[in-house]
């Protein structure tokens, strides 16, 4: 884990600890890296309830409650699925907040419509979810590292009370598209 992610995790820890709020994760392509970054801070058991690695669409549907029709129509790598993963994780893990990641880290699996490096990030709660799309392919390891770090940064900004995360709040490499639901 990079130094910046450790610092961000510590800031997230402090805010969740002070507010007595809880967090969970729902991760596909990052395979638990966001959860790993969160628990790297001592005392995480006070606010981190757990994570769901939903690498297969079946798990997204069965455990997180993502609609099968949504995945069939838009694929698992889209903003709507990332939002549904946040809401599903909050419900399944009984948390105040969740962070979700779904994408194609590479080197294979991409298409003309959804190329390698396309990763959707989402964070929030059942009522308010912020999203971000990463689109640059820098190789699998860097794609996963960037997704993890950006997800943490986005969640920190969400916690700080900003209604919409802007490009100025997070410094990912490559092209980024922002959204909020």
How do the strands and helices of this protein lay out in sequence?
Layout: H1 3-19, E1 23-27, H2 33-39, E2 48-53, H3 57-62, H4 68-74, H5 79-93, E3 97-103, E4 119-124, E5 129-134, H6 140-159, E6 176-180
Parallel strand pairs: 1-2, 1-3
Antiparallel strand pairs: 3-4, 4-5, 5-6
Helix pairs in contact: 1-6, 2-6
Report on this structure.
The chain is built from six helices and six strands, in the order αβαβαααβββαβ. It is of the alpha/beta class and 181 residues long. The chain has a six-stranded mixed β-sheet with strand order 2-1-3-4-5-6, sandwiched between helices. Helix 1 (3-19) runs parallel beside helix 6 (140-159) and helix 2 crosses helix 6 (140-159). The radius of gyration is 15 Å and the shape is globular.
What do the pLDDT scores average to? 91
**Estimated structural class:** alpha/beta
Which range does the strand content fall in?
15-25%
The spatial strand order of the largest sheet comes to: 2-1-3-4-5-6
Order of helices and strands: HEHEHHHEEEHE
Helix share bin: 25-40%
Low-confidence stretches: 162-167
Count of distinct strands = 6
Largest sheet: 6 strands, mixed
Cα-based radius of gyration, to the nearest Å = 15 Å
| Overall geometry | globular
Count of runs of 4 or more consecutive helical residues? 6
